UniProtKB/TrEMBL annotation:
<dbReference type="InterPro" id="IPR011335">
    <property type="entry name" value="Restrct_endonuc-II-like"/>
</dbReference>
<keyword id="KW-0378">Hydrolase</keyword>
<feature type="domain" description="Putative restriction endonuclease">
    <location>
        <begin position="21"/>
        <end position="161"/>
    </location>
</feature>
<dbReference type="InterPro" id="IPR012296">
    <property type="entry name" value="Nuclease_put_TT1808"/>
</dbReference>
<protein>
    <submittedName>
        <fullName>Uma2 family endonuclease</fullName>
    </submittedName>
</protein>
<dbReference type="Pfam" id="PF05685">
    <property type="entry name" value="Uma2"/>
</dbReference>
<keyword id="KW-0255">Endonuclease</keyword>
<dbReference type="InterPro" id="IPR008538">
    <property type="entry name" value="Uma2"/>
</dbReference>
<keyword id="KW-0540">Nuclease</keyword>
<dbReference type="GO" id="GO:0004519">
    <property type="term" value="F:endonuclease activity"/>
</dbReference>
């Protein structure tokens, strides 16, 4: 007996997505829309732990009316609805999704082996074009220790690379932020050691 052919799902047949198409997806589905490409992220336990640490570090000195969070979509345009790993946004939008991109003080992406190009190029362009003033990229795949790169929006609408470091990161833009990058490296090493001990 042969199996009946199943019609392709919308996920299989759709190539160029817009925010209007997202209404056809299940409400509990986690997704990102980058340049019309639908991305269904599946973060690891380690990835989420790094995000939680970053959120806690960004909470210190956060300006009144703002707060750090993660796994929240940003409303950008018809072909883009990114879901940054961590972001600092207005609390006034706390009951809304997606959050207007103009509400974001900064966004952070944590690179995974499958997201490197997307985080370093595609999202960088989307966030710059949307006017996000500060973009931080945290790379736990860097062998010399976790690497943090700060991008700041320049007058020409593109990001300037301010610093790449695997040491303690401090800045006053957009507010006084300290990120203990060596502590993130220690966390990564703990997870690697646990994996090796299996």
């Amino acid at each position: 007996m042969t199996a009946a052919l199943q019609p392709p799902s919308l996920l299989d047949e759709k190539q160029d997505w817009t925010v209007d198409d997202l209404a056809s997806l299940p409400e509990d589905l986690r997704y990102e829309l980058i340049d019309g490409r639908l991305i269904l992220p599946s973060p690891t336990y380690f990835h989420q732990e790094i995000c939680a640490e970053l959120r806690d570090m960004l909470r210190i000195n956060c300006p009144p009316g703002y707060g750090p969070t993660f796994d929240v979509s940003l409303e950008v345009d018809r072909r883009n609805e990114p879901r940054p790993d961590v972001l600092v946004v207005r609390k006034a939008h706390g009951f809304r999704t997606p959050v207007p991109v103009k509400s974001a003080l900064l966004v952070v992406e944590v690179i995974s082996p499958t997201s490197h190009f997307r985080d370093m190029f595609a999202k960088l362009k989307v966030y710059a074009a949307s006017g996000v003033g500060t973009y931080l990229v945290v790379d736990p795949t860097f062998e010399g220790g976790v690497m943090l790169t700060e991008y700041r929006l320049a007058a020409d609408g593109h990001y300037d690379t301010i610093v790449s470091t695997n040491r303690l990161f401090k800045t006053d833009v957009p507010y006084a932020i300290t990120i203990d990058v060596p502590a993130l490296t220690e966390l990564r090493n703990e997870f690697r050691q646990a994996q090796d001990d299996q």
